[in-house]
Specification:
heterodimer, A: about 425 residues, mainly alpha, about 70% helix, elongated, B: about 140 residues, alpha+beta, Alpha-Beta Plaits, two-stranded antiparallel sheet, about 25% strand
Chain lengths: ~425, ~140
């Protein structure tokens, strides 16, 4: 029995994301040991180990090395599973040896060799989840589940969909992995290039899902950004992923994430770039982003990731809105439009055009094809307001507000609408 | 009714299974942290006399001379007990109040509150007034 006055490790010392992170690490290693076709089993074992922690620690106190405790428990549970399951008969000894090693490594702490093994397993998992035989939406869900330790309902909250839809996607993704015989390995040689692009693309989607303010639970979204950065950092630190475009992606994420907390006011209403308190931008994250931006320039390659990162860097480098280097930003958008001639890029470029050549030039630069997109009307509203055409601007803000369901955006657009109407009223007196 | 119980010790039996199945790692960690903090708070107030988790596997022995040994209670049943706390409380009401703070209630588990019969049952025979209270005392278990 636990003595009522026994000293325990304070629960506050447990790392904020310990369970999630251990989940990602252990699922990856157990998947290597069990075989990628038994991914679901690896997930079940890890889930059971975490439940054991929940139902034991309150009684005995948080162990000195919580991560090692979870690993050891997962090892024991995995051994039980392997001994019971006839499918593992021929591989039992090999898996048992692997489990021993896993537990010993966790006990020893962050030794270089073991850290490398764990990192490699997570990279294998990344390449497996992002395999081109799996549809994009399935890849993102699977990466969040296996690598980041999100539950189906957390993923559903981030994507504004229901649990059943995500559960179905996860099942289909695992089915595809088995069916297509996806290997659990870090690709090499000619294959690496294309496979790395697929991973970068998924991480980009993951980050964007978190970054865009137009959907889902805000806490979960911040976690998505954090996870995308964590995975990209892991990738950039491995020889297979240490490519200029990986650093460009990481720079892009960091330079945007650094400004996340300043994007809304205390009431959660969105703030325009010119209205943000730049002292709330995270200087340390910006510095990291700039470092990766420099490393992204190591080759001759200029991807759209490079350009987007460079644009974000321009904003981060400006001490205030007035000193923003708009001509440089416009130059970057000009090149980005060549690589990616989508209406969304054109809309963003139009803002830069307006800041260099005036609002009318900006309006002229907006391409057709975004009539269902609230930002299309929001940008038009801003530019019309700058031209003093307040009634037209008000109409655009009204339409924009009707196209978004997010409170923070609606609050912002409604405020802009009211400002326009008030200014118009003053003028008519 | 609780003030009449001749005890200051209560057993909190944590019941239920399956509530943890669909929780995410983050949710499990949050619940763990809340549960540990709750426990530590009680400890600081000197309310906790002991506690233990229980393994889910167990046997039920029954029949004359224990002839029948069956599996159970089943770990997945709603009745399954996952652990217990022995606490100090001045009344059943206070014990119930303490039990209400168990964070796992929010995800569908139950806690059974049982007064520990501190006195020998003979006590009741010697004290007729206590005797009258006996049915109450016997029925004084509570579930939160």
């Amino acid at each position: 029995m636990r003595e009522s006055n026994a000293p325990t490790r304070a629960v506050s010392e447990v790392t904020e994301r310990l369970f999630r992170q251990e989940s990602g690490r252990l699922v990856a290693t157990l998947t290597r040991l069990f075989g990628v076709e038994r991914l679901g089993l690896a997930e079940d074992v890890v889930q059971d180990a975490l439940i054991r922690a929940l139902t034991t620690w309150p009684f005995h106190g948080v162990p000195d090395n919580p991560a090692a405790w979870i690993t050891q428990t997962a090892k024991n549970l995995a051994l039980d599973v392997v001994r019971r399951d006839a499918n593992f008969r021929t591989k039992e000894a090999e898996i048992a040896a692997g489990l021993e090693r896993m537990a010993a490594d966790a006990e020893a702490g962050a030794r270089d060799a073991s850290e490398h093994d764990i990192r490699d397993d997570r990279l294998r998992m990344m390449f497996a989840c992002c395999h081109p035989v799996i549809a994009e939406e399935l890849q993102v869900a699977l990466a969040l589940k296996t690598l980041c330790g999100f539950s189906a309902s957390e993923i559903a909250r981030a994507f504004l969909t229901n649990d059943a839809t995500i559960a179905k996607r996860l099942t289909r993704a695992k089915h595809r992995i088995r069916e297509a015989g996806v290997a659990f390995e870090i690709p090499a040689g000619d294959e690496l290039d294309a496979r790395l692009d697929a991973v970068l693309h998924t991480l980009y989607l993951l980050f964007n899902e978190g970054y865009k303010a137009s959907s889902g639970d805000s806490l979960v979204r911040a976690e998505l950004c954090h996870e995308a950065i964590r995975l990209a950092t892991l990738l950039a630190g491995h020889p297979a992923g240490d490519q200029p475009r990986t650093h460009a992606l990481l720079a892009l994420m960091l330079l945007n994430a650094a400004r996340l907390s300043a994007r809304a006011d205390v009431d959660g209403t969105l703030l325009r770039l010119q209205d943000q308190d730049r002292s709330r931008w995270d200087g340390a994250v910006i510095a990291r982003g700039m470092m990766h931006l420099a490393r992204s320039a190591a080759g001759a390659e200029l991807s759209n990731l490079h350009l987007q990162a460079a644009i974000a860097a321009c904003h981060c480098a400006a001490p205030d809105y007035a000193s923003t280097d708009w001509p440089r930003i416009l130059g970057l958008y000009d090149r980005l439009v060549e690589l990616d001639p989508s209406p969304v890029v054109a809309l963003n470029r139009a803002v830069a055009v307006a800041n260099v050549h005036g609002p009318q030039a900006g309006i002229d630069a907006i391409a057709a094809g975004l009539e269902g997109y609230y930002l299309y009307y929001a940008v038009l509203g801003e530019l019309e307001a700058r031209l003093g055409r307040l009634d037209v601007a008000a109409g655009h803000f009204r339409r924009a507000a009707g196209l978004t369901s997010l409170t923070s955006e609606q609050a912002f657009l409604t405020r802009r609408l009211q400002e326009c109407e008030a200014r118009a009223a003053v003028r008519s007196i | 009714m609780s003030s009449s119980l001749q005890t200051s010790e209560y057993l909190l039996l944590f019941r239920g299974a399956g509530w943890e199945k669909n929780l995410s790692p983050q949710e499990l960690q949050t619940l763990m942290a809340q549960w540990v903090s709750w426990y530590e708070g009680l400890q600081r107030q000197g309310k906790v006399k002991g506690s233990n988790p229980l393994f889910p596997q167990g046997k039920i022995v029954s029949g004359k001379k224990g002839k029948v040994v069956a599996d159970g209670p089943f770990a997945e049943s709603k009745e399954a007990i996952g652990g217990y706390f022995l606490i100090e409380a001045s009344s059943l009401d206070e014990a119930i109040e303490i039990a209400r703070g168990w964070p796992i209630l929010d995800v569908g588990a139950e806690v059974e509150v049982r007064p520990v019969a501190a006195a020998c049952p003979v006590f009741f025979e010697l004290d007729p007034s206590a005797c009258q209270r006996l049915p109450e005392a016997a029925a004084a278990g509570a579930r939160v």
